[in-house]
Every structure is written in structure tokens, then in C-alpha cells.
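Hey Z.,

So I finally got round to the acetyl coenzyme *A thing we talked about over coffee. Here's the setup:
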Amino acid sequence: MTDSLTIRDNRTGEEHEIEIVDGTIRAADLKKVGGLATYDPGFVNTASCRSAITYIDGEQGILEYRGYPIEQLAEQSSFLEVCYLLLNGELPTSDQLAQWTHDVTHHTFLHENIKSLMTGFRYDAHPMGMTMSSISALSTFYPHASNISDPENRYLQITRMIAKMPTIGAFAYRHSQGKPYIYPDNGLSYCANFLSMLFKMSERDYVADERLVKALEVLFILHADHEQNCSANAVRSVGSSQVDPYSAVAAGVGALYGPLHGGANEAVLKMLRRIGTTDNIPGFIEGVKEGKEKLMGFGHRVYKNYDPRAKIIKKATEDVFEVTGVNPLLKIAQELEKIALEDEYFVSRKLYPNVDFYSGLIYEALQFPPEMFTVLFAIGRTPGWLAQWQELVTDKEQKIARPKQIYTGERQREFVPIDQR
Ligand code: ACO
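And the result:
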């Protein structure tokens, strides 16, 4: 063995040599050390797969999709081009991009029964719950999706999901507004069509401001993948049972719904509103330091530096506010960031703004209610989930996800009849 680790088991005095590959040891190799296993709640130091999709260096604040820096993709690429890149590993040629755009554009419509299903939700249903249910319902409309070993079939389902996510998200939004659902306009680009389905009223054609279309493209690109995050892990975990991709992605949507993951931007806005004025910031910060609450939009499991996506979003906020006017909460956010970045509590814990600190402000400026923020995140993240899923199902090393546990409960008790308890 070239790189190896020698473990001396002090229980027995035995020594064991374990191979090190790519800076990791195989947890299964520890079994030979007296049946040893690792205990790692939240997988903070456990690699679950080999992946060639997204690279992050959290210390340096680097994010790359298939080797391309996020800054270059956000500036020069389109969302559909990034989807292609994530799914195929290479940037498309113009012919490939034209074909891919055509394929996605021609799958934007939903079966009318999916629409009926969505109309069945209560008037105040959370759009994220509606999105999750509708994605999972798609598996019943496309039963052949369960044939996950056929690459052509996988391509069809992947195309469908990327195409239909904005339609589902827009219908969920219109539902919450009590407005009629607007069908896709396939003459428009991916993001322009999404804005049309969201905001069109009685006009013949809805024409979105190009700067807002561009801002949405950037936001979707920034959210497109983030390696083994909570929702990607959920997609992989559920997908490892070899279920169809709609069911696996629905699990990802569920994971993203939570306030510690995709729900954080909604929480940031609520927090900024609660703070109300810059005068209240010092008191709020004191409360955070005393552990009474969290500074939402700060901190990240991987980034121990400024989240590179937060930098790009901060810039996009300025572009959006040029069109929509400045959101007064921006001042509070900026001041909060300034104070937090100088404060010993945040500095020593390497807590920096993450992608969600500013994204909510843009979404609000685009007139989205907070409940819609995570849906926007989910639309952007769909290609990442699907790229992760595809990598999983074509990876021969993968097995059904099934962690171990350390059992802490009772053993071998005698059943007590109910009248004797
Ligand atoms: N505000 C105040 N303190 C914080 C924050 C925060 N936002 N985040 C972490 N800390 C503190 C913790 O209390 C802990 O302090 P301690 O060492 O004194 O106990 C220390 O920093 C380390 O934090 P952990 O919770 O161990 O970090 P972890 O990697 O488990 O959590 C997480 C990461 C969940 C993102 C966390 O930073 C957090 O809750 N942030 C706020 C929610 C948020 O913005 N989530 C969006 C993440 S980005 C995304 O999902 C797209």
C-alpha cells in the first residue's frame, strides 16, 4: 500500500493497516478493526460518493460546475446551457444547445389532470408543498420513468422535469393568488416564459424586462448544483432504491423545503422585517451571540469564507433594484452584514453570508411572496438533482443507502398486557 493508515486497537493490542485513497479510508475497512464503525450524524466527515459534477473549496470560497468557475458561468452562460453542462459534463456546441433548448421547450405543458390536482389544494397551500406533490404525481403520469437503466428514457424524464418545473412553480404561485393559471408560451426563453406564466394578466403577450430575465437566469445558475447538500443527498438516498426520478426529486424538494436549507431565504426576509430599523441591529446581534436565535443567511457547512454565490447575488441585487426601485430592507441587510463581519463571534466561527442572505431581497423585488422563494430555488436546483441522480444510477459502486445506527434503547423486555401497565 502506498498511502495507508496504521490503526492500533488498544482493546486488543492488534495493529491494522488501512489503505488511503483520495484522502479517505473506506469505512467498510474499519470492520476488520474489531468490527469498528464510524459515527457521523449529519455526515460532516463522510464522503458518500465519487462525483465529477461540482467542486467546492469552502476555505477559498471556490465553486465550479464541471470545472467552470461559477463567476464565469453566471456572467456568460444561460441557465439551459448550465443544465446541459451539469448533465453532460461538457458545454454544448450551438447545435447541441439548439436541440436541448428545443427538447426542453416542447415539454413545458402539464397534463390537464396535474392542473386539476393542483386546483384541489386549499387556497392557502404553501407553493412548495404543492410543487413537491405535483412532481411526485408526475411519476404516475409517466410510469415508464421507472425504467431507469435505459439512457434514452432517462433523457426523456430529465428533459420533462426541467421543462415542467417552472410550469408547476408558476401554477402553484397563481393558485396562492387566486388567479387563473397561465399556460406556457413556447415562443419565449426559459426564464421569460416563467415570468409570463407568473405575471401575465389580460395582455396578449407578456413582455418581461430583459434585466429581470437576466437576473432570474443568474439566480437559477447560482442555485443549479451544490454537490452533496441536504437535498442532493435526499435525491441520491431515495434514488438508491432505484425508484423513478420523479419520486427521487420529490424527496429533494422536501429536503429543500426546510428552514436550514432552501427555506433560509424566506427566514432571512422575516428576520430583516422583524429587525425593522438599523437601530435595532446591535440588540439583535447580542441575542444571536447569546444563542437566543440565529442570524439567518449566515454560516454554511462547507463555506468557511464568503460564499461566492452571495457575492454574485449582491451584484445582481443592484441590477434588479435599478428596475424595481430599492427595497428598504437592503439597508438593514447591508448594515447587519457589516457589523457581523467585524464581530468576534462571527469571525471566530467563520460565519459569512451565504447564498440566501441576499436572494430573498431580489425575489421580493421581483414581487414574489416569501413562500415562493424556495420554489424558485427548487426550479434552479432541478438540473443539479438530476445530474446527481444520473451519476448515482450509472455508478457501479453505489448501493442502496442504508446507514448503521448505535442502538441506545431497551432490549429483550417481556410484553406487559394492557391491564397490568
Ligand atoms: N447564526 C449564529 N450562529 C451560528 C449560525 C448563524 N447563522 N450558524 C452557525 N452558527 C454557530 C453555531 O451556533 C455554532 O456555534 P458554537 O460552536 O458556539 O456552538 C457554530 O457557529 C458552528 O455552527 P454549526 O451549527 O455547527 O454549523 P453547521 O455546519 O452544522 O450548520 C448551517 C450550517 C445549518 C447552514 C448553519 O450555519 C445555519 O443554521 N445557518 C442559518 C441558516 C441558513 O442560512 N441556511 C442556509 C444555508 S445555505 C443553503 O442551504 C442554500
